[in-house]
Amino acid sequence: MAQPPDLESLQLLVHVADQGSLTAAAAELGISQPSASKRLSRLERRLGLRLLDRTRRGSALTADGALVTGWARRVLDDLTALSDGAAALHRARTAQLSVAASLTIAEYLLPAWIGELRRADPDLHVGLQVTNSARVCELARHGEVDLGFIESPGRPSGLRSRAVAGDRLVLVAPPGHRWTRRRRPVEPSEVAGTPLITREAGSGTRQAAAQALAAHGLAPVPPLLELGSSTAVRNAVVAGAGPALISELVVTADLAAGTLAEIEIAGMTVERSLRAVWRPGTDPAGPAAALLAQARRRAGKA
């Protein structure tokens, strides 16, 4: 591959996967259908892969296309994270409360916690950095944030911490996957031996899954895909790329709607505590203490 794919083509591919139609994807991006078709054909030539099956009824991802789409989502998510992170760093310079949070907490829990806090204090300025759990701990250890929130299993070393909520990882697959047709739960050894769609190294979700398998004397095989956010993992599973162990918070609506199916694992549950972390030798004070109290109150831990 002489040149990497351009971002516009990757964005178009992701929209085709989401819309199920090249025409609808082109309309969403404000380009003509012929231009979109040429752009995807150019992407296929550049990669040396057939990404779409084109029929009169629409465009469907090939198996290669589903994998490439998962990687494309990661690239686009990482680009968004870069932009958002730079903006967060800028906001944090003048923030009254500086917070770092892992991606799942930041997306599914923290908005409600901060929203309640700001209703009580509308002038409160919160600077938020969204990253994986390992980086959150690093920021907290160096005093770069007042408070961090992580998904990693256990208590992190070199930090004070307190449980603020609970979570469960669930094994999910798209309807029609071979695991959904089984009458019995899958064995932990089969989960460990199957390449899954996972978060990147350093994420709390990935650490929790590995720890649960280790309790059965198992180590997971290399992943099918490594993606930079739980939402990207969820989207790849919905697209049919493969199964994943993922936070229940991320897929609750999909399980209810039947977009994804939960697969029971024999004799294995993956439950974890979501924790607030801060520097040792200190106690959260002011807005940080209020945010910690709000998080615990929402989870019924106050």
From TrEMBL:
It comes from the Bacteria. Residues 5-62 form the HTH lysR-type domain. InterPro entries: LysR_HTH_N, LysR_subst-bd, WH-like_DNA-bd_sf, WH_DNA-bd_sf. Keywords: DNA-binding, Transcription, Transcription regulation. It holds the Pfam family HTH_1. GO terms for molecular function: DNA-binding transcription factor activity; transcription cis-regulatory region binding. The keyword DNA-binding applies. Belongs to the LysR transcriptional regulatory family. This is LysR family transcriptional regulator. It comes from Actinomadura verrucosospora.
